[in-house]
Amino acid sequence: MRIVLLGAPGSGKGTQSQWLVGRFHIPQVSTGDLLRAAVANGTALGLKAKEAMAAGRLVDDQIVLGMIRERLAEPDVGQGFILDGFPRNLTQARALDQLLAQIGQPLDAVVQLNVDYGELSQRIAGRRTCSDCGRVVNLLTAPQALAAERCPRTGQPHRLFQRPDDNQATVAERLRVYEAQTQPLVEYYRQQSLLRSIDAEGEVAEVSARLEQVLAR
Ligand code: AMP
Whose CA is nearest to atom 8 of ligand 1? Predict the structure, then answer.
């Protein structure tokens, strides 16, 4: 199954991708994760991407497309993949269509995760990542469960950090960029009859169930 998850920052693309990985045994391809790894490793690509990411803008299409081309050429995506955070604009969506047409593996579905804007800002404010296992959690929605949980990597409590671009000013810009550049993809994929929309508010498990339902159609 080849899926794109489409949604604003904080709509749960990463969380639901992780659920899909377990459910369908296909890899999550997150351009945000790939870019953060490049920045952390100080690669030439990371150095180019760093400034745009910190400001909440999109990284240059050519950089992102090069990265996606390489990633989709790896053997583990042969059975399918979940694209999380890509495509982010029409240029990327058209390039993806071309790339997938060349390898004869078109998309099966694009799922739009709908979350109210007020809720998005709240979710992002509470979002933390474990620096050891990479799990993304929310301090606001599940503080007790989180305190009791141990990191599967270390056996110790999670060591949580906040993404540097999850601050208020950058989040406002990321939401603006989403509206202006990514939102038009909803219509693009609707016209290709690939679009399915779900309400992505409520418990994580409830959203996963809705996701599974629309993917079964
Ligand atoms: P994310 O983890 O998906 O929220 O992405 C974090 C940041 O990485 C974004 O705010 C952008 O600066 C950059 N980024 C991630 N994916 C893309 C993409 N497909 N195109 C351009 N920039 C991206």
Answer: 32
On whether the CB atoms of residues 65 and 83 are closer than 8 A, the answer is no
- pLDDT over 80 (residue 143): no
Q: What CA–CA distance (Å, rounded) separates 73 from 24?
A: 20
Q: Model-level pTM?
A: 0.93
CB of 39 within 6 A of ligand 1: the answer is no
Q: Domains in the chain and their CATH numbers?
A: 2-126+162-215 (3.40.50.300)
Point out the ligand 1 atom lying closest to the alpha carbon of residue 68: 19
Angle, helix 168-177 to helix 117-126, in steps of 10 degrees: 140
Distance 156 CA to ligand 1 centre (A): 30
Provide the pLDDT confidence category of residue 94 given band limits of 50, 70 and 90.
very high
